[in-house]
Amino acid sequence: MKTTMKYKLTVICTLVMGMSSLMMAQDTPQLSDPEIASVAVVANQIDVDYGQVALKRSHNKEVKDFANRMIEDHNAVIKQAVALVTKLGVTPKDNAMSQSLMSQSKETLKKLNSVSSNDFDKTYIDNEVAYHEAVIGAVKNVLIPQAQNSELKDLLEAVLPALEAHLGHAKMAQGKISK
User: Fold this and answer.
1) Residues in CB range of 80: below 8 A, 6 or more apart
2) What pLDDT was estimated at residue 25?
3) What are 107-165's pLDDT values in tens digits?
């Protein structure tokens, strides 16, 4: 149990510090539209990857249903983003923010794959809450304000309510799993 709490705090601190440092005024990265597109695709792919681990490791129907929803919804956003950049003739460009997300993701995937079966569901859902909070903050405070192309900005704004719904769903699941 101590391991789960320690892991939860580590995940939350890592995500919040990483995303918060990127969003602070003096540290806010200046992103071009191709870089924003890269961040959007990477952030969505990360949650697809987390969901795939949950499908393999969890035995809880609610967790599996949530993971399936994450995979389905985030793959749909990736398809929308790819369609938009293809239409606009833009190639997503790797950048410090997308690299930071990928680096944090590798650590989280390692933890999700190694945490005990008894602690997996709570660890996964706690991570989903922290991850969606961080991503919502980045979308609101970095990606939308910096998007120059109106169609890219519209896509980011359209995705925000789904991210917020995911966060609400994750918090509800978190409440049930914590009992």
Assistant:
1) 155, 159
2) 40
3) 999 999 999 999 999 999 999 999 999 999 999 999 999 999 999 999 999 999 999 99
CA–CA dist 64, 52 (Å, integer): 9
pLDDT for position 28: 77
The DSSP 8-state label assigned to residue 97 in this structure reads: H
Q: Rounded to an integer, what distance in angstroms lies between the CA atom of residue 133 and that of residue 12?
A: 10
The two tokens of residue 68 are: 């399936």
Tell me the C-alpha distance between 120 and 4, whole Å. 9
User: Is-contact 152 93, C-beta < 8 A?
Assistant: no
Whether residue 2 has pLDDT greater than 80: no
CA-based nearest residue to 107, from 130, 74, 140: 130
Residue 141 makes CB contacts below 8 A (sequence gap 6+) with: 23, 28
Angle at the Cα of 34 from the Cα atoms of 29 and 37, rounded to 5 degrees: 85
Residues 58 and 71: beta-carbon distance below 8 Å: no
> What are 156's two structure tokens?
């980011």
Of the chain, the percentage scoring pLDDT greater than 70 comes to 84
| pLDDT surpassing 90 at residue 22 | no
| CB half-sphere exposure, 94, CA atoms < 13 A | 4
